[in-house]
Amino acid sequence: MPARNPADMLPPAQLVKIAKDVAPGFVPGGLQYVQVTGARPTVRVWGKDPAAVSPRALGGFAAIDPYSGKILTTDFMPGQQDTANLFISSFFALHMASFGGTSVHWLYFLLGLAGAWLFYSGNLLWVESRRKAQRKGGEMPVQRRDTSLMASASIGVCLGCVAGISLTIAAGKWLPGRVDDMATWHMGIYYAVFFGSIFWAFIRGAARTIVPLLWLAAASTAAIPLTSLLALCLPGLSLWVDSTALGVDVTAFFGVLALAWMARTTARRVQHGPADSIWSGRRTTVVREATAA
Question: Residue 291: how many CA atoms within 13 Å on its side-chain side?
Fold first, then answer.
């Protein structure tokens, strides 16, 4: 079969109209062209329906022949799925909060923060509880290696993840028009910060790393609203900024305040907490003095 000529395809506005005619409540968000010069040309009209379950985080789609305008399938279109596909899509929707609108998205965001805090604080409390379990006399207990490694891994993974995500979000305002492969750059930035934080935590130890990593996470998160502010003040830098992302900047600002508070509180614990705690910066000094005596 000879290759199709993309110039013969229907205009995007007509393809969007065809999708909306199938489901009036469908709100198109983008077009994805697949094999337009091949034997089975397809355009997926992606979008969401506020009153229906979306099978994916981006919503759902109607598959249309871009040359004839024929509807190929609506199995993944919100509000047009049969019972079997709707049953499967409901699991994706529950996992990715692709239903219920903005209020459900915020609820999932807050639940995600609560889960992350529970994981982070729970690991720190478990590590600290090992000290109390080991203290059986007046002597300062020696922390077991597995406990020390667990402490380093906990802060390296958790805080490295926060810093990496924040930096790659901020980089999203700098990268457009400057790099060809955005996805590769985003992944590279995230994993460089993530694995770098873990490596640093294992090399330096938990007590010496936790406060600097908290400040790194705070600085990385602050880069999100600061980049938006810079883009507004200096438009000549050609930074990407959109008023619809204002909620992200405001949320990041409050995240900076929370991380800065955690850093200051943790710093006091490192400096003035019990010397036999794995989170104490005084532990090394005390151990050396005891050994010298």
Answer: 7
